[in-house]
Amino acid sequence: MLTVPEGRVTNSLLYEGKAKQIYTTDQPGVLLAVFKDDATAFNAQKRGTIQRKGQVNATISAHLFRKLTAAGIPNHFLDQPEPHALHLSQLRMIPLEVVVRNVVAGSLCTRTDLPRGQVLARPLVEYFYKNDRLGDPLLNNEHIALLGLVTMDELALIRTSALQVNEILSNFYQACGIRLIDFKLEYGWGDQGLTLGDELSPDNCRLWDMRDDRVLDKDRFRHDLGGVDESYQEVLARVLKL
Predict the structure, then answer these.
(1) I want to staple 62 with a disulfide (CB 3.0 to 4.6 A). Which of 66, 80, 169, 211 is the partner?
(2) What DSSP assignment string belongs to 144-204?
C-alpha cells in the first residue's frame, strides 16, 4: 500500500492513473503526485509490479526536471518530499501525448516497416490523442485542429519545446552512456504559459545502452525480457552521477 508523504497536508485523491496517484494539498495550485510500483503495458492489458519503480521514476523525473529548469524549459516540478512522491504545479492539461523519436522502435516499426534501430535523419515528432476509450490514436495537425485541442500556433510552440527537450535529454543521456531512442511528453497551461508536465522516466522513454543497445526501459516488462528491476535501478544510478 502506498504511503502519502507528510509535509503539505493532503486533502483528497484528485485522480488515479496507471502509474500515479494525484492528491490535492493545502497549498492552492500545488498537487502531490505519488508514484506507484504498478506496471502496465498494451493499454493495461498486461499488468505487473516493478520493485521500487515508484521511487526510481519519481527520482529520475525530479533530476531531469531540474536539468530542464536550468535550461529554461518551463515545467511543473516543485520539489521531492519523499523518494516516491513529487510536489507539482497544477496545470490545465492538453489531451495530447507528444512523442519524439530519434531511432526507429516500437509502433513506428509496425506503422512504417522501417527496421528497428534505424537512426532517423532528424527527430520525428508525433501526436497522439490522449483518450483511453479510443486507444490513444495517432493524430495529424488537421485532426488536432478539428478536435480543437490547441491552435496551430500553440502546436508549433509544443513542437519547438519538445525538440528542445529532446536535445537536452539526448545530450544528458549520452553522457550517461545511454541512447535516448524515443520518449513521450505531456503539456498543460499554467502560470508560466505552456508548461511541461507528467514525468520523465524509463516508463515513458526508450533507453538503450550505448555499448550494446541493451534495453534499459519498460520494454523489458512489455516483452518479458527479464531483469526489469535491475534495469530501472541501473538507469537511476547512471542519471544520479550527473
Answers:
(1) 80
(2) HHHHTSS-HHHHHHHHHHHHHHHHHHHHHHHHTTEEEEEEEE-EEEETTEEEE-S--STTT
Which domain CATH number covers 77?
3.30.200.20
Predicted TM-score (pTM) of the model is 0.94
Which pLDDT tens digit goes with each residue over 204-220?
A: 999 999 999 999 999 99
Q: Residue 209's CB: how many other CB atoms inside 10 A?
A: 17
3's grid cell? 504511503
Residue 13 — φ and ψ, nearest 5°? -75, 120
Same domain, 201 and 98: yes
Q: Are residues 53 and 108 in the same domain?
A: no
Residue 116 backbone dihedrals phi, psi, to 5 degrees: -60, 135
Residue 115 amino acid letter: P
Regarding whether 123 and 57 lie in a shared domain, the answer is no
- Name the residue range of residue 105's domain: 92-227
